[in-house]
User: Fold this.
Amino acid sequence: MPENAEIREWSPTINPWLMITPVMLAIFMFVLDETISNVALTYIAGSMSVSLNESTWVLTSYLIASGIAIPLVNSASKLFGRKNYFMICLIVFTFSSFLCAVSTSMIMIVLARFLQGLGGGGLLPLGQSIMLESFPKKDRPKSMAIFGIAIIFAPLIGPVLGGWITENWSWPWIYLINVPLGFLCVYLAKNLLQEPPYAKKQKNVKFDFKGMMFLSGWLIALQIVLDKGNDADWFGAAWICWLSAISLVFAILFFVSQLRNKDALIDLGVLKDKTYFFGTLVQVILMGVFLSSAALLPSMLQNLLGYTAYLSGLSMGSRGIGSFIGVALYLTLSKKLGDRRIVMIGLILLGLGSVFFGNINLEINLSTIALPNILYGSGLFLSLTPLIPLSFSTIKNESMTNATGLQNLVKNIGGAIGTSIGTTMVSRFAQVHQNMLINHLHDTNTVFAERVSAMTGSFMSLTDPFTANYMAQTQIYSQLVQQSHLWAYIDTFRWYAFATFLLIPMLVFIKKPKSVYGDK
Assistant:
């Protein structure tokens, strides 16, 4: 039998649904740890005697390391064998989780989180390629539905679980829970995972150290710029300009080296596939919108409505409910409508969720924001679940590990950029609205004058007239600032809606083999 035929016809000897058990558990742990630390930062900062701003490096170091680890998957899988590398990643992730829990200084926990990201970063593309290859093409949408539950539901329950563990136990336990689960995962992976011939350990594998150096310089500089840029007024700060230039130079050097090197970390040739390219592009923008909204909503609830960290995390729970609704809708509609139409419905639901958030006010409560969050959860599930197998439908199995690594790398970057853009939009829009509204606070405005007079009268019983007048104007200005920030969030969510609806026309470029799927 020809070698290509053997590659195409490979299938595991055990039930693939049983085989992916350790894969799903590993992916769930990795994605959960992206958000579970968010609500514990205050406690970590206090125990380490550092500022809250410094404690954000607990999050940043994890994202930087996972971004660096993702492109290494293809080369490392050839060097160690995919199954062995998957277990190596699990061991590193588990051991570093223990180090995070026993850390006694900020330097120690940042280094431990960096190591945790290096181990966990490979789990997502490895797990995705294993799940895509273990099932026949006709069953890939079902496997991606299960995959979608993990990558969507885990970050939603992360803040809720992290808040509950931190308040009832202590923050080290958000990392210690990974230790027994990690060992269980390694045991199951060793006994259940199987790999095709092309995913086994290969001889004479050359590692692209130059590409690795360029990639690390690019992503580390980029993440620092994105994480600290808004606080430093972006390009108004000289060091941001220099660091951005360094990141750009390293990015150019990385892509040039990948195009010229035969043994590159990433084979960029897969981008020539139009279906893969546009499928990946849509996912990048989707992740930017989703992760940015997930970061902004708790911030809005805490800053404008005074919610606690736990309650703001709990507000994201309805997105999990939306995800399960998305599962039911997908299983019901997938055969009737076809995958691309399902993706379109998901994008419409996501856009509508942003439209609802674009019409909020300060009277909202947890029940009020449940509907748009449900739309977000179900919309993202319906969008990503069929879109992932669609984007890989024209990719050969032997190129799957490389393609998943590249796709997850750019999605990771897209999520970081989207979150940074969202934060900047809120900051800039708030300034614009504050400048517009403050023009109405003058004595010739009768409404303003009457309000100041009325509030001054109410404060007169507490202090002298001058101080009472000052307190009245201060309170009115505080309300103005609050309204400015409210409108900033409204404008930002409306832009999210526009960006989401703009993705729908791109679906015409995403094709899939009719002989396999029978698309409508």
Remarks:
- The domain at 1-203 is CATH 1.20.1250.20 (Growth Hormone; Chain: A;).
- The chain is about 75% helix and 0% strand.
- Confidence is low (pLDDT under 50) at residues 1-7, 515-520.
